[in-house]
Amino acid sequence: MARLRLDSPLDVRLTDSGLSVGEALAAFNAARGGAGAIVSMLGKVRPDGDVKALELTHYEPLTLPGIKALADTARNRFSLTGAVVWHRIGVMVPGEAIVLVATAALHRRDAFAAADYLMDHLKSAAWLWKRERRADGWHWIEPRSQDHEDLARWK
């Protein structure tokens, strides 16, 4: 039984602390009883090269409203019965969760497509700035060309 309750079809959050993935998914499943499919994706800090930490900063007046609008667009485009989009901000180390996206729909293809759509947009067109700390200091991270290609397929 989930201790957390998700009363709204779209639950969008920014947090500077860890993501309670199991609790979120249990609550989402409980709240979306009419869904035929629930898909989830957990993004984590990769231990690429000598990455010691990842920091995400944002512009507060735009970030949460922008991600909420993105979730609403996904709900309409893919006929979702609900979505969770929880994103971390602040400093994280390799292995820590950055983002949790879960989508619920009557059919699996819509749930999968919506999760993919949300992640492609969060990765490339979100309101977050990323930098990595390596042995030689902090470095800003720009979206890769593959990230832009992934985003372009939704146009």
Give an overview of the whole structure.
The chain is α+β, with helices and mostly antiparallel strands and 155 residues long. It has helices at residues 21-31, 60-77, 108-124, 145-152, and strands at residues 10-15, 37-44, 53-58, 80-88, 90-92, 97-105, 128-134, 137-141. It has a four-stranded mixed sheet with strand order 1-4-6-2, with helices on both faces. The longest helix has 18 residues, at 60-77. The chain is globular, with a radius of gyration of 16 Å. The N and C termini lie far apart (40 Å).
Terminal-residue CA separation = 40 Å
Rg computed from alpha carbons, rounded to a whole number of angstroms: 16 Å
List the quaternary state of the chains. Answer: single chain
Low-confidence stretches: none
Give a summary of the structure in a few sentences.
The chain is of the alpha+beta class. It has helices at residues 21-31, 60-77, 108-124, 145-152; strands at 10-15, 37-44, 53-58, 80-88, 90-92, 97-105, 128-134, 137-141.
Record keyword descriptors for this entry.
four-stranded mixed sheet; globular; alpha+beta; four-stranded antiparallel sheet; 8 strands; 155 residues
Helices and strands in order:
Elements: E1 10-15, H1 21-31, E2 37-44, E3 53-58, H2 60-77, E4 80-88, E5 90-92, E6 97-105, H3 108-124, E7 128-134, E8 137-141, H4 145-152
Parallel strand pairs: 1-4
Antiparallel strand pairs: 2-6, 3-5, 3-7, 4-6, 7-8
